Amino acid sequence: MRSATLMTMLAATLLLAACDASEETGTMPMASEDMPMEDTMSMDAEDMPMTQSGEAGRTASAEGTITAIDADAGTITIDHGAVPAVDWPAMTMAFEAGEALRSEVAVGDAVTFEFRTSDGGNEITAISER
Q: Could you point out which of 60, 78, 102, 119 has its C-alpha 20 to 30 Å from the C-alpha of 39?
């Protein structure tokens, strides 16, 4: 019983600290007296997409130009065009890539590549020069 009381007091203290912090930073709290609860973001389970550990994520393909290869980080950075399949605009970004894929290309190469995007990151699954 004492641990439940302690946890409740700790939670209340953290909640109050978060409210004070939001006033200092200018961020808006999730709910307030001025905003009815029904206008706040719902956190119901049926509103949340179900993800399972090990989920493959979404896959897509794109074209671009390699701007960097980082063997230590295990990445290839590509200046790529828009990728409608995953709602991405054109940008330059680093993708995780295995050693075999990194060895197939060089900085400055124009490439076509396939990748997988998930909560865990973005990984090139295939790459070739255009």
A: 119
* Of 128, 78, 80, the residue nearest 104 (C-alpha): 128
Q: Six-digit token pair at 112?
A: 């076509």
In 3D, which of 72, 71, 70, 56 has the Cα closest to residue 115? 56
Domain ranges of the chain: 2-42, 58-129
- Are the beta carbons of 121 and 96 closer than 8 angstroms? yes
pLDDT in tens, 90-108: 999 999 999 999 999 999 9
Cβ proximity of 63 and 109 under 8 Å? no
Q: For the domain bounded by 58-129, which CATH number is listed?
A: 2.40.50.320
Q: Which residues pair with 114 in a beta bridge?
A: 61, 126
